[in-house]
Design brief:
It comes from Pseudomonas simiae. Residues 61-197 form the GST C-terminal domain. This is Glutathione S-transferase. Residues 2-80 form the GST N-terminal domain. This protein is an alpha+beta fold. The protein folds into two domains: 5-78, Glutaredoxin (3-Layer(aba) Sandwich); 83-187, Up-down Bundle (Glutathione S-transferase Yfyf (Class Pi), Chain A, domain 2). Helix content is 56%, strand content 9%. It contains nine helices and four strands. The protein has helices at residues 13-25, 41-46, 65-75, 87-108, 118-135, 149-164, 166-171, 175-186, 188-193, and strands at 4-8, 29-33, 54-57, 60-62. It has a four-stranded mixed β-sheet. Helix 1 (13-25) runs antiparallel to helix 6 (149-164), helix 4 (87-108) runs antiparallel to helix 5 (118-135) and helix 4 (87-108) runs parallel beside helix 6 (149-164). The model has no long low-confidence stretch (mean pLDDT 97). Bound molecules: glutathione. Glutathione binds next to helix 3. Residues 9, 12, 14, 36, 50-53, 64-66 line the site of glutathione.
């Protein structure tokens, strides 16, 4: 198999989740850090839609972060991140990608949506935070007592939400979620995929 290439942007949460799954799977990948303002022509030739991450492997192009995660886990999933195909995994990722992300963007860039105050967008995002807090009752990870694809697909987005106003997040009533995020941020896997290349 020829070398796998991942077009990535270090701070993009979609690219982070792809890097997490690829590194966990142990598949060797060359990471190409792109500038979103000047995307490389080779990447656009493979994937004209122009979003990162894009994985090019063995003649195949995978241009959605969740599909890249699933591809990586299909190669090797030593700690059962797929939870043996439990549909709850993809359902939670869909809620993140189709619901929470929308509110996250409005909260993060509230000045671009001046029709409502920032607190409104934050409160809408908190509905999902409360759900995650409840899922963490009695277990260390969202859907099991070990990490799953859901934890890894969501954590980069919860991180962004938390970092909009760190003081607010630190004092918000989500102790389990705070702990879960902190453990993720300090995990060797996350630290490794955030190293500057
Ligand atoms: N649905 C895509 C979304 C990827 C996405 O939106 N990535 C952003 C960066 S975080 C991007 O590349 N945006 C294009 C741009 O900013 O030009 C996925 O899951 O991979």
């Amino acid at each position: 198999m020829s070398e796998a290439l991942l077009y990535s942007f270090r701070r993009c949460p979609y690219a982070m989740r792809a890097r997490l799954a690829l590194r966990y799977s142990g598949v060797p990948v060359r990471i190409i850090e792109v500038s979103l303002k000047a995307k490389p022509a080779e990447m656009l030739a493979l994937s004209p839609k122009g979003t990162v991450p894009v994985l090019s492997v063995a003649g195949e192009v995978i241009e959605e972060s969740l599909a890249i995660m699933q591809w990586a886990l299909a190669q090797h999933d030593p700690q059962d991140w797929l939870l043996q195909g439990d549909p709850a995994v993809l359902a939670l990722v869909a809620e993140n990608d189709q619901g929470f992300k929308y509110h996250l963007d409005r909260y993060k860039y509230a000045e671009r949506y001046p029709e409502l105050p920032m607190e409104h967008y934050r409160a809408e995002g908190e509905v999902f935070l409360r759900k995650l807090e409840a899922l963490l009752a009695g277990r260390a990870y969202l859907l099991a007592d070990h990490p799953s694809l859901a934890d890894m697909a969501l954590a980069p987005f919860v991180r962004q939400f938390a970092h909009v106003d760190r003081d607010w997040f630190a004092s918000a009533p989500y102790p389990r979620l705070q702990h879960w995020l902190e453990r993720f941020l300090q995990s060797p896997l996350f630290v490794a995929v955030m190293a500057k290349v």
